[in-house]
Amino acid sequence: MSATAPPSRPLPPPAAAPVEASAAWVRPSPTRRLLGALGDLALSPDRKQRIRISRSLISMLVYVVCVLITGYGADNGLVEPGPVHHLQIGLVSWIVVVYTCLRSGFNERFADPALTLPQILGAQVWIAWSYVACAPFRGALMMLLALVLVFGIFNLNRLGRRVTNIYTVTLLGSVMGWMAWHDPAHYPPKVEFAHFVLMATILPVVSMLGAQLSDMRSKLKRQKNELTEALARIQEMATRDELTGLYNRRHMNEMLQQAIKQMERSGQTFSLCVIDLDHFKHVNDNHGHGAGDEVLRNFARLARQTLRETDALARWGGEEFLMLLPETRHEQGLIGIQRLRDRLRELVVVDHLPDLRVTFSAGLTEFRGGETIEQAVERADQALYQAKAGGRNCTRLI
Questions:
Q1: H or E stretch including 125?
Q2: Quick one: pLDDT at residue 376?
Q3: How far is the C-alpha of 38 from the C-alpha of 173, rounded, in Å?
Q4: Interhelix angle for 47-59 vs 30-43, to 10°?
Q5: How far lies 84's CA from each of 114, 135, 247, 260, in Å?
């Protein structure tokens, strides 16, 4: 508040209830710390990146299963080992590439850091390759198409889902047609036609359901944001005076109780000052209530700019204000109040009435240990009455 005043600290939040000894913080065991360090190394310490990598690794379990199943088929003579081995190398390489892109942070250069569309399009390529290399298993591979689309339900937009559907139907349809033409013994045309119809039917349905779920998710997210904003506005209305933007009386009472608790902990007292604008009724009577409201708003704005960040000012009622000066003796409080008085003397409080000047009277007191807030405010009120009786536009101390 004053250049000569000692620095003050903001009021801390109310003290929490004592913590039971059994709930005390326990140092993590070495094993737990090691697991945590390994988790950060593998998945990244960044929470969002950690979620993206975890989801991708879960989806890659499908690739691992494919590697195992195709290996089983090759070992038992169900499929030719050569193409299967190439497929397995490709699947493992793809897992490494995707994981490296995510873990290195390269993915954060893109609009969709999860790389959903590239992962889906790449997965469809591997499904198509598996369809060619594993004729006996190709019917089961159809299930993976829907699974891959489910993976991108919440991240793909409408255009992304449309691109994915067209790409998948075109790719798999071409593979089915090619294999039916060149290898009808293992890929009978009638069976491939049935597979194509099934695929072309299921994929749009899954995509449509995914779009509905995505829209529902977006709607819930939007409603959550609106609710958060509404709660913030309600909180603001519950603590602020609508006209001046200052704290209201109820919230100031809470801050005063908090100040008492801090004083009991630190041993440093605080001061209270009741301010009343002089002859405010004359402003309303002579210039209208609109001018009176403008006076209150401009005074509140000036006071906020002049006081310290740790000080608090509330509209106490009408043209009366209550100021809380934490860790402040009355000598320091007098300096800050006088500075506010000097600045108010130069302020144009009503734009269309440049010659109108407003002054205030103030009563200042220090809080005394063992008394109530009501007693301290009453004493500040008595000091205010003395200031008014002494000619106004001055500060009295009790």
A1: helix 116-133
A2: 93
A3: 44
A4: 80
A5: 29, 11, 73, 77
> DSSP labels for 261-321?
HHHHHH----EEEEEEETTHHHHHHHH-HHHHHHHHHHHHHHHHHHS-TT-EEEEEETTEE
DSSP string, 193-215: HHHHHHHHHHHHHHHHHHHHHHH
What are the residues whose beta carbons fall under 8 Å from the beta carbon of 15, sequence distance 6 or more?
Answer: 261, 265
Q: Do 10 and 324 touch, CB atoms closer than 8 A?
A: no
pLDDT tens-digit map of 206-224: 777 777 777 887 888 888 8
CA distances from 142 to 76, 84, 87, 127, 202 (A): 22, 18, 17, 8, 10
The bridge status of strand 320-325 relative to strand 271-277 is antiparallel
| List of residues 6+ apart from 14 with CB closer than 8 A | 258, 261
Longest dimension (CA), the chain: 112
Phi, psi dihedrals of residue 396, rounded to the nearest 5°: -120, 145
In degrees, rounded to 5, the angle at the alpha carbon of residue 57 between the alpha carbons of residues 52 and 60 is 130
The answer to whether 306 touches 339, Cβ cutoff 8 Å, is: yes
Q: In the numeric block, which tokens belong to residue 41? A: 């190394």
pLDDT-flagged residues of the chain (< 50): 1-25
Q: Are strands 395-397 and 360-366 parallel, antiparallel or unpaired?
A: parallel
For the chain, report the end-to-end CA distance as a whole number of angstroms: 20
**CA–CA separation, 324 vs 336, rounded Å?**
12
pLDDT at residue 14, as a whole number: 43
Stretch (H or E) spanning 365: strand 360-366
pTM: 0.54
Half-sphere exposure of 273 (CA within 13 A, CB side): 32
Q: Identify the pLDDT of residue 160.
A: 83
Strand partners, 320: 276, 317
| pLDDT computed for residue 154 by the predictor | 64
